[in-house]
Specification:
heterodimer, A: Rossmann fold, six-stranded mixed β-sheet, four-stranded antiparallel β-sheet, B: mainly alpha, MetI-like fold
Amino acid sequence: MPSVLTHEPPVETIPILKAVDLHKAYGPVEVLKGVSLDVRPGEVLVLIGRSGSGKSTFLRCINLLEVPNRGSMQVAGMRFTFGARPPAWQDMRRLRRQVGIVFQQFNLWPHLTAERNVTLALEDVLGIPHKEAVDRALDALQKVGLQDKAHAMPNHLSGGQQQRVAIARALALQPQLMLFDEVTSALDPELVQGVLEEMRRLADSGMTMLVVTHEMNFAREVGDRVIFMDQGVVVEQGPARQVITEPVHIETRTFLRAIVH
Amino acid sequence: MHYQPDISVVIQHWEVILLGLRMTLYLAVMSMACALAMGLLLAIIRLSGILPLVWLTDAYIQFFRGIPQFVFLLWLYYGVSLLIGVNFQPITAGVIALSVQYGAYLSEIFRSGIQAIQRGQIEAGLSVGLSRVSIYRRIVLPQACRIVLPPTVNMWISMLKDTALVSVIGVTELMRTTEIQSNFYFRPFEFYTTAALIYVIMTLVFARVALLLERRLQF
């Protein structure tokens, strides 16, 4: 540590996520070619880019649904260095408890009620007694406006409602970081706003979020920073408003023009 | 046509037939229970990806799927018993023969049922930190159950009928009882018709139960 630093940096500037030079390849296809980025506590970071740019893969690397081939990562106080050996299973589970994810296809468990979708991990992972888990689940469902749907089966809910249950499921574990993987892409247009509204509220409550989305209005209004990825690398990053309204790089401009019109 | 069917002889001996039926059901239930356990175990091992074990289960499935039930039963009861010096009880041999082969069939059904669960379902489990056991027990198996129910019931019905083969090694189940009675009273038409009808009725009943179960398991 350089001697000019006389005191520890203030806590809130220590990133919740610090990814360094992450590489991911499937056989000969390199999807991530060295992606580095930080997310600070309370920050909403939005990842944009074409499909196939690696943004979803990057997101999935953060909770190790995909394990990077190379690079290192520090998440919620845990450190991972990727190389020949995959991380220990127990470490992966510990990480996932701290990092929630919401998927494009909701991935609710269709044989369980909305409430049970939320309580399952509370009981099986955190070991919370059933009664308390139910209370916490109802609380989480209430936060997304679905307390009256607690006993509904997922197939009896609209796509938007299912996605909000999925958000509640992730939030109930009180993660330090939330990942959103194109969560509105599979929704009927009229249901998109409800889910975005939920995410906006979550951002306002101070949750740290990493969001992959094609919703540029959301990115501009809710995002603190926007990162544009292309072909597995970060091309441009900066304050949300700036990247979206006055992008510097030609690729970013081309992309934004294509998506707006 | 000199033969005059006479159903009264069957009615007179319904208790004996019932005893045979009881043995048939016993054989089928025991064999099915073993086959289900075996099938699930084999399917999970096969999906585990642990290579030597995968090869072993694969060999097991291919081998036992390929032998006719009848041949396997006789081979086990008369052949293997000599080789290993164990005198199987006919019932035991029957249960082993049925469950070993149906275990192989069922494991293929279970494997495809488990594989039909979408990757996203498992990822959702991983993403909230569930253990592998929890993911299997709470997410994969309950959903796979619904998928495999209809083909499993088919296996059960097929097994019910296959128990008739076990009569050749002297288990007095429905088929053997029928044979003995019909030879004794010289009424093959009446007795075999009765046996056939009993098998048909059982099949219908279980198919019906399966349908109700299937509706209840819908989500």
